[in-house]
Amino acid sequence: MKEKNITIKVNGMTQKQWGILLLELNLMKKAWKPFKVDMNISAPGLKKVIEWGTKPYADYNREKDGNKKVWQILRK
User: Fold this and answer.
1) Burial, 22: exposed, middle or buried (Cβ in 10 Å; 0-12, 13-18, 19+)?
2) Residue/partner pairs of 32-39 with CB below 8 Å, 24 or more apart
3) What does the alpha-carbon distance between residue 57 and residue 76 come to, in Å, rounded to a whole number?
4) What is d(CA 41, CA 69) in angstroms, rounded to the nearest whole number?
5) Closest CA to 18 of 46, 60, 39
6) What is the pLDDT of residues 14-53, one digit of tens each?
7) d(Cα 47, Cα 59) in Å, to the nearest integer?
8) What is the DSSP letter of 75?
9) What does the DSSP assignment read for 6-74?
10) Going by C-beta distance under 8 Å and a sequence separation of 6 or more, which residues neighbour residue 26?
11) Closest C-alpha among 44, 3, 4 to residue 22
């Protein structure tokens, strides 16, 4: 099948909205993968946004506090 390209140009978007847009595109990429759709996304800061946006909440708290007790409570 022929490769298809899409270009999205955005003006007036906040940094938070930009991050959410990138996370939603990443969700679409994951959802379509079982249907043999191979999507490549490139954007400024994409790797960092996906890294932080898909991290489980418990992992974030463990890194932030470094407290093993907090980690044990959240795992239950």
Assistant:
1) buried
2) none
3) 13
4) 38
5) 46
6) 999 999 999 999 999 999 999 999 999 999 989 999 988 8
7) 18
8) H
9) ------S--HHHHHHHHHHHHHHHHHHGGGT-------TTHHHHHHHHTS-HHHHHHHHH--HHHHHHH
10) 41, 50, 53, 54
11) 44
Q: Which helix (H) or strand (E) holds 4?
A: none
DSSP conformation class of 2 = -
Total residue count of the chain as it appears in this document: 76
Q: Whole-prediction pTM value?
A: 0.70
Closest among 43, 42, 54 to 13, alpha carbons compared: 43
